[in-house]
Amino acid sequence: ILHGYPISKQLWLKKFLDITDDEFRKAWEVDHMGSVYTSQAAISYMIKQKSRKLIFIGSTPALSGYKYGHVFVGPKAANLALARDLAQELGEYNIYVNAIAPGTTATAANLATMSSEEKEFLGNETALKRMVLPEEIARKVIFLASSDSDGMTG
């Protein structure tokens, strides 16, 4: 099972004091609680099979903080913590739980809505001085879902 939640540019840039209760709740309900509910639904089957993989998608701002994305970082941080907790609980059943926290991703949707300045700014925030490519994230997820990552959890 792979968990993640997209967010609009408008909501990403919204100032903390301008974010409504409903916007915060939706992000928590979709991203974090969606991850909780789908994990709960799948784990009993995974325990019976004694081997499966849960993969959560976090975000670098959930680890480092950021001046934008306030509605986004809380649920992402909670998902990263949940992945670590579930890895501890489910290891005895040979269930591997991992998470990745990619930076800004150069998706078609992101690129279509960003100005040249925004693309440059977001790319320069990383050590590699560029945005992450979707296929780079996909390869990490494929690795974590494969037997090549057996022995890695948490």
Structure description:
The model has no long low-confidence stretch (mean pLDDT 90). The protein is globular and about 50 Å long. It has a three-stranded parallel sheet, with helices on both faces. It is mainly alpha-helical. It contains seven helices and three strands; from the N terminus they run E-H-H-E-H-H-E-H-H-H. Helix 2 packs parallel to helix 4. Helix content is 56%, strand content 9%.
Notable traits:
7 helices, 3 strands, 154 residues, mainly alpha, three-stranded parallel beta sheet
Helix and strand topology:
Elements: E1 2-3, H1 9-13, H2 21-49, E2 52-57, H3 60-64, H4 70-90, E3 95-100, H5 108-113, H6 116-124, H7 134-145
Parallel strand pairs: 1-2, 2-3
Helix pairs in contact: 2-4
What would you say about this model in short?
The chain is mostly helical and 154 residues long.
Approximate strand percentage: 5-15%
Distance between the termini: 15 Å
Determine the fraction of residues in helical runs and give it as a percent range: 55-70%
- On the 0 to 100 scale, the average pLDDT is 90
Strand order of the largest sheet: 1-2-3
Identify the overall geometry.
Answer: globular
Computed CA radius of gyration, to the nearest angstrom = 16 Å
Number of helices: 7
The class by helix and strand makeup works out as: mainly alpha
Largest sheet: 3 strands, parallel
Based on DSSP secondary structure assignment, what is the total number of beta strands? 3
Low-confidence stretches: none
The ordered string of helix (H) and strand (E) elements is EHHEHHEHHH
